[in-house]
Amino acid sequence: MNDTLPQDAALWRHIRDTAERVARLFDYRQITTPIVEDARVFLRTVGDESDIVQKEMYVFEDRGGDRLALRPEGTAAICRAYLEHGMGSWPQPVRLFYIGPYFRYDRPQAGRYRQLWQFGAEAIGSDSPATDAELIELQHALYEALGLTGLVLRVNSIGTAESRARYVQALREYFRPLLPSLSKDSQRRFETNILRILDSKEEQDREAVADAPKIPDFLDEADTAHFGQVQQHLRDAGIAYQVDPYIVRGLDYYSRTVWEFEPAEAGGQSTVGAGGRYDGLMELLGGPPTPGVGFATGIERIALNLKARGLGPEASQPVDVVTVPLGEAGASACIRVARDLRAAGITVRASIPGRSMKAALRGASAVDAAYAVIIGDREAAEGVAQVKPLRGDGEQRTVALEELAAAIQAG
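The chain above was modelled as a monomer; its predicted structure follows.
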C-alpha cells in the first residue's frame, strides 16, 4: 500500500475531476458503497476459483462473529446496493459511477498496489448492445479527456453460460494432452475453471493458449448478433477496436461483451481499464434476473501513464501571500489579515511569530510567494501593512488593512 504525497495530489485530483465530469456528461450519477462488506457479497459473485477469492481478498471476522471483507472490486457491491435500495423500480437502466479505494493482496508492481483506487461506471437494467457500447464510449471519452490517446481497445464476447459450456468442453479436449507442460496454476484451473488458463501470464501457458480454440467459434446466433451490434455501435461512435478472442476477464459473473484498454506498447501486460457485461450477477446475490454492464479503471495506472507521457494538470498555483508578523500586536493583526485575505480567495501562508524578518522572507521566497505582508507593532497601531513584492522589480508600499485584499488582487 502506498502514500499519495502532496506533489501527486494535483494529478490525482485532475484524474478524479475529469472522471466525474465525463461521467456526468453521459448522465451517470455517483454512488458510494462501504469499504467493508459482508464477505458473501464477493464470495457468491466473483467465483471460487478467481484470483480474488483464492489469493487476494482481505477477509476477517468482527467482534460479532460476522465474516467481513475489505471490498476487492466495485461491481458486486453496487449490485448489492441496487437490490437493497429497490433501484429496480427506478427508470432503467440505472446509470451509476464510483470512485474509491479497493483492496487486494496482490503482488505489488508498477501502478498496482494492495490498496488501489478505481473509477468505474455501471449501467444496470438493460441488455441492449447499445448499453455495452455506451460504457465503452464513456471509458474511451475519459482517456481522451485526460490526453491518453492511442490506447488499444480489445473486445470479445464470451457468450452466455450455454455457449461457454460448449467452449469449455472444446478447451478440455485441447488442453488435456498439454497438461504436463502447463504451469501448476493452470493445471489446477484445468480441473476447477479452465477459462482461467486463457488469463495466464506464464510464458509456458501463453504458448499453449496461442493455438487453443477460440470462443467466437462457439457462440450461438443470439450471442453473435449481440456482439455484432456492439461492434457496429463502436464504429458509429468512431471508436477503433480490435477483436481479441482470448479476453475472458477474471471474474465469474461476466457474460457476452468483455473489453480491455491498454497502451499500444504494453503487450497485454499493463491494462489501464477493463469491463464487461454481467447479466447473471443479480441472481447470485438473490435478486431477480437483471442485466448489467460496467467497467473499472485504475487511478494509479492512469497516473502512471500520464506521467510517462508528460501529461497532467498545470503546476499547482504558488502562494499569493506570506504574512510576516513582528511583535505581539503585529502577530495579532496578521491573524486577522490572513482570515480576511482567505475570505477574499487569496492563498495565505502564515509565518510563525517570533522569527526574524530575514528568516520569514527567506521562507516566503522558498515557496515562491507573490507578496510578503509585513505587520509590526507600529503598523498594527496605524492600521496598515507593508506589502513587499517578491517577484519582479516592484517596490514595497504601505497599504491600509481594509484595502489589502483589493491591492493584492490588483497586483
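The chain has two domains: 6-160+220-308, 321-410.
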